Amino acid sequence: MFIFKQTKRKAVSLCALTRITLLCLALTGCKSLEQFLFYPQQQLIATPADFGFRYDTVNIPSTDNVMLHCWYLHAEKPQIANVLFLHGNAENISTHMHSAAWLVKHGYGVLVLDYRGFGESTGHPDLNGLHNDALAALEWLRQKHAPIVIFGQSMGASVGLVVAATAEQQASPVQAVIAEAAPASWPQIAAEAMSRSVITWPLKWVAMRLDDTFDADQHIQEIHHTPILLVHSEDDHTIGPHHMEQLQASGPASTQTLKVRGPHIAAMRDGHVRAHILSFLSFITEAEVSNQNISPMPIDSTKLKKPCTFDQISCRDQE
């Protein structure tokens, strides 16, 4: 009887909490729900120097008087291009930098950006602000007068696709965009997340009312001149692989895809996936040398020496 009463009391409390949450969201609008997309961490747990990388700390002004804290990792070989790395919706650059830092030994400088409210960047995160932050970082990179590649993961992959579309609209396209585990739509991914629990299930109807202004599947179709590579794991339970299929269907016919295996945003741990990334980007070097418009090399995943697995590989290991 005691257990029954406790269980019933908990169920009533959870129902009440859900109703209160729904009421608050109804009164304050979907902007409140947008805040649940972000899980920033202010404390930095490491710096690139801890792993032997040569880097500069960069502070970039963005809109709303926000100052963005970034790291620029210098290429260890003659420079091919710069990479703007956009991480996901949690933690900060100190926990995500390894996903892109491996590129420095292949001739790529890497700008690792913390959005507003993440790490040591000022302000508070929101979707509009995040895209302004990425555009500000892109403008900073343009001052280095080298080809630019946008590489984003999860939330950052969606932001990267929208920013690449914006760059084309401004007649200054980037050289390539790589999007790993990109959500196709914010209302859709929010609704899917709410549907995973009986407690939050009623919120999925509110989630579907999120602003879709920055949905990647709406903007990828505006990218006509920038090569696109979509990377997604068939085992991703955070953002399902159907999001890549939606983006591919919405994007230009030239959009390339790479299906991998393993958990969410873990593909860069695999040396063979890295090799495919470098193969995709090899057109940049050829284009610079010949001064011609050369398309990226198509990726053939059937030529993998072994299936993509995700044992932990140091960011400085050879591919």
Model description:
This protein has helices at 2-28, 31-34, 93-96, 98-101, 127-142, 155-169, 186-194, 204-207, 216-219, 242-250, 271-290; strands at residues 39-40, 55-61, 67-73, 81-86, 90-91, 108-113, 148-153, 176-180, 228-233, 256-260. It has 11 helices and 10 strands. The protein is globular, with a radius of gyration of 21 Å. The longest helix has 27 residues, at 2-28. With 319 residues, it is an alpha/beta fold. Residues 1-30, 289-294 and 299-319 have low confidence and may be disordered. The strands form 2 sheets. An 8-stranded mixed sheet has the order 2-3-6-4-7-8-9-10, with helices on both faces. 36% of the residues lie in helices and 16% in strands.
Q: How would you summarize the topology of this molecule?
A:
Layout lengths: L1 H27 L2 H4 L4 E2 L14 E7 L5 E7 L7 E6 L3 E2 L1 H4 L1 H4 L6 E6 L13 H16 L5 E6 L1 H15 L6 E5 L5 H9 L9 H4 L8 H4 L8 E6 L8 H9 L5 E5 L10 H20 L29
Parallel strand pairs: 1-5, 4-6, 4-7, 7-8, 8-9, 9-10
Antiparallel strand pairs: 2-3, 3-6
Main sheet summary: 8 strands, mixed
Kindly estimate the percentage of residues that lie in beta strands according to DSSP: 15-25%
Q: What's the arrangement of strands in the largest beta sheet? A: 2-3-6-4-7-8-9-10
Into which percent range does the helicity of residues fall? 25-40%
Show unreliable segments: 1-30, 289-294, 299-319
The shape, in one word, is globular
Tally of helical runs:
11
Q: Radius of gyration in whole Å, from Cα? A: 21 Å
Order of helices and strands: HHEEEEEHHEHEHEHHHEHEH
What number is the mean pLDDT?
A: 83
The counted number of beta strands is: 10
N/C terminus separation = 60 Å
Q: Which structural class do you get from the secondary structure elements?
A: alpha/beta
